[in-house]
Specification:
Helix content is about 30%, strand content about 25%. By secondary structure, it is of the alpha+beta class.
Length: about 150
């Protein structure tokens, strides 16, 4: 009985590790899409924290940075920074949105903008979860198949 339980547990652990995606490189951008059965288009996006240092090279691409077509950042524009909040944190956040805008332009995933569901920071990355304003077309379902 114990041997059977050990074999089953070991098999589950090994199979779980086998399906884990490879870790992201330090300067890799992560973009994953998911289209639900009702046509809702979701996405997860993240950039490494180190990438904000490279953004100074690109200059000040304002573009849609202040809530243009893809204004998933509603309500953030008028917020004042808390005392002690560093300017580099603001630059990192702005780099997240700039990189996301570039990725959405490149892929054509959200044609009419998106709603920001969650934004958070982990030890080495900034993450954003979003939902496109439009529902998925049949072409979207072909171009952006669900991985799972």
């Amino acid at each position: 009985m114990n041997k059977t339980l050990l074999v089953i547990t070991t098999s589950l652990i090994v199979s779980a590790c086998a399906h884990r995606p490879p870790p992201l490189g330090m300067d890799e951008i992560f973009f994953e899409t998911k289209i639900k059965q009702d046509g809702t288009k979701l996405f997860a996006f993240s950039i490494p924290l180190m990438q904000h240092r490279d953004s100074a090279k690109g200059g000040g691409k304002g573009g849609r940075g202040q809530g243009g077509e893809r204004s998933g950042r509603g309500g953030r524009q008028g917020q004042e920074s808390r005392e002690g909040s560093s300017h580099s944190s603001d630059r990192m956040t702005e780099q997240l949105y700039t990189s996301l805008d570039e990725k959405l332009d490149e892929t054509g995933y959200c044609q009419t903008g998106f709603l920001e569901i969650d934004t958070h920071q982990t030890e080495d990355r900034l993450h954003l979860l979003g939902e496109c304003n439009e529902t998925a077309s049949e072409l979207d379902k072909i171009e952006f198949p669900n991985v799972n």
